[in-house]
Amino acid sequence: MSRRPGRPGNRRLDDAIRDQIVALVRTHYHDFGPTLAAEYLAERHDLRISREKLRKLMMTPVFGRIVKPVVLARISLAIAGIAVAS
Questions:
Q1: Is residue 79 assigned to a domain?
Q2: Is 44 contained in some domain?
Q3: pLDDT digit string, tens, across residues 39-48
Q4: CA dihedral 47, 52, 57, 63 (to 10 degrees)
């Protein structure tokens, strides 16, 4: 149970910085993955953000798209028709 109900987390990005990152990624790095975009933001714009935080930010509706994580169903070997040695 949280001891800080209703308050923002300690590691939350400031809204101004988040908006700046969103604008830069939308205009310059829209076709980049989160790792490369985070590297370019650090090198060219001096904005340090982890690739994981950027990935989560890129999956939000702020970017105009919602990416659903792909869940692959496991197919048993018997269903796939592969002989299993017992």
A1: yes
A2: yes
A3: 999 999 999 9
A4: 90
